[in-house]
Amino acid sequence: MSAMQLAPRTDSDSRRRSRTWALPGAAVLLGVAVALFGTGVVDGNATESGGSGSAPQADPGSTSEMGGHPDHPGHDDHDHDDHAVGDSEAHSEAGHDDHDDESHDDHDHDGHDAAGSPDGHDDHDHDSHDDSDAHDDHDSHDSHDDHDSHDDIVRLTAAEIAEFGVIVETAGSGVIEQTLEVPGEVRPNDDRLAHIVPRYSGIVTDVRVGIGDYVKRGQVLAIIESDESLAPFEVKTLLSGTVIGKHITLGEAASRDRDTFVIADLSTVWIDLTIYQRDLERVRVGQEVVLLRGHEERAEGKISYVTPIVDERTRTATARVVLTNRDEDWRPGMFVTGLIRVESAEVPLAIPTTAVHRVEGRAAVFVETADGFEPQPVVLGRTGRGVVEVLSGIHPGDRFVSEGGFTLKAELEKGSFGHGHAH
Question: Is 241 left (phi over 0), alpha (psi -120 to 50) or beta?
Fold first, then answer.
């Protein structure tokens, strides 16, 4: 019994081992076929294999023995078949994965290289950026060169400064006087004016003075013969002064109803200023007035009188200044300009108006530096009599050109025209 039982086990085992090695090989080939030729070829091979029936009938006895083996009923066949199928599926999936990976890798990298490669992107961006930078550098360099070549400093020697009359002062505080500019006229002082009339009517036999002559009080001006007087009588002045009126000629019949001479003491004169109705509230007695006659002649006085009524025709009032006129330069009949100081304020920084110039369309002051004179833009405030307030641009203690700045401006424009720039 023992020998008979051992023979079938050995033969069955041998067949099972042969089948076990055969099935995995077929599964591997099947997986390769699926990967290479597609699903249709595999289906065709499977149909032919099923039609021939060779696979299940290769060893009929082995199935019976395996199926009826008392120790391992179909265990080995089940395990090996499952393993073969698993290997086939795994191999197929592996082949599919390899195919996908290769296709994906080729597609991704090739497409990325062709359409949007980092190299192409870098070349484009960096080239453009470099060109832009080069352009900016070029523009900046040109602008910098232009700025350097545009030198706004005027350099003068000490001899040239003296020749051009350049005066330098130190900036500091000042008083800004708000003024009201009004027109005016010089008049004789009516309190020092005499109209000379004869005591009797008669014929003028002698005239001893003329217009403009200076006479002293009691001096004889003319002689008249009259029927009302037993002897010729003298016409005398009542005060010392200048003859400003003469209404008598030799042989003329003089009348006591009409003045023959007008004598004015011109050591003082009246300056009658015209005040418009809108400015009356700002003008009052005691205010200081600067009087201008021509370009340089000037004098100062105070308002002594303001008319209480307004002229019906002109709608103006009169403010009067009594002006001392020792040299008699202020002649009656002259037109003058009056600057009435209506307000006064002290400011931290004020400079003469002659120091301000227009440079490149802006108010500027020439400031003294170590290299020369440089125009410094300034912001101006209130303006007074020949003085202007400076709000910003220069500081107290700065050295600036108060006179002679027009020469510096001309030199600056000359240099600017040479560089093709106009100021």
Answer: left
